[in-house]
Amino acid sequence: KHLKKTVDNHFSPQINLWNITTESWENQKREQNNPTFSLFSEGLACSSSEEGVLKSLPGVNGEGEVNLVHDPWRPVPAIGGHLGLEPGEADRSKLDLRSDIAIFTSVPMSEELRIEGIPILQLKTQCDRESFDLFVALSIIPKSMNIVRQISTGVLRINDSELEIETQREINLQAMLANFQKGDRLRISISGSSWPAIGINPGNNLDLPQDSSPDCLVTTIILLLANSKLEFKSLISY
pLDDT digit string (tens) for 160-198? Predict the structure, then answer.
């Protein structure tokens, strides 16, 4: 249109997005009403993969706290995602059984749901080290299937952290478009490492991220769930 000098001022480009679940291209929806979730736990979200809960209710802003211990000598292994050695979708059902990953799962969807956007997790943390990582994975648990289908991941490296001070964090995950069927569940998994995709955080500001070494410190990260939020920012703005 530009080369032929027939530019239409009202012309709007067609934007197509790849749907992870249907494995097909779809038109981008300008008015996408994505749900917002909050995180809840009585402190056992690392001990049990079913204790932590994601809730999507008006006026509900999260509750509880979880102690997440990162041991640099047995880091959480990377699987799939945008940084993994074998990137893409992955089944993390066995990985989520580890006691150093905090798990939050929604109830089964009561109706079909289309989620399009950039997942953003907001929550407060405390830590006993100057530096630590937050690795977050978002997954679908399909109805009647014994898998945890990881579809988006994100990481935040925190440096110069004030010891034991509550601080708001925001972790951006990779953009996604997915359809949830009735009975499917949504899951968020939070850990302090994703090795070897991400170098192990030594826990201080003196050493660079690396593999396990005597300089790496065991780190306790407290996830403060009050006012926590998982939302989906629009992929495209005009």
Answer: 888 889 999 999 999 999 999 999 999 999 999 999 999
CB atoms within 10 A of CB 193: 27
Alpha-carbon torsion (53, 90, 183, 143), positive or negative: negative
For residues 144 and 161, give the distance between their C-alpha atoms in angstroms, rounded to a whole number: 43
Classify strands 149-158 and 219-233 as parallel, antiparallel or unpaired.
Answer: unpaired
* Among 107, 55, 96, 64, residue whose Cα is nearest residue 229: 55
The per-residue pLDDT for range 80-119, each reduced to its tens digit, is 988 878 888 899 999 999 999 999 999 999 999 999 999 9
CA 91 to chain centre: 15
Instruction: Kindly report the pTM of this predicted structure.
Output: 0.91
Q: Sign of the C-alpha dihedral, residues 47, 155, 61, 110?
A: negative
Q: Which amino acid is at 101?
A: I
Strands (E), the chain: 16-19, 24-27, 38-40, 53-55, 65-70, 90-91, 101-106, 113-127, 132-141, 149-158, 167-172, 176-180, 185-191, 219-233
State the DSSP code for 210.
B
Q: Cα-flanking dihedrals φ and ψ of residue 70, to 5°?
A: -100, 115
Give how far the C-alpha of residue 238 lies from the chain's centroid of Cα atoms, to the nearest Å.
26
Helix (H, G, I), strand (E, B) or coil at 119: strand
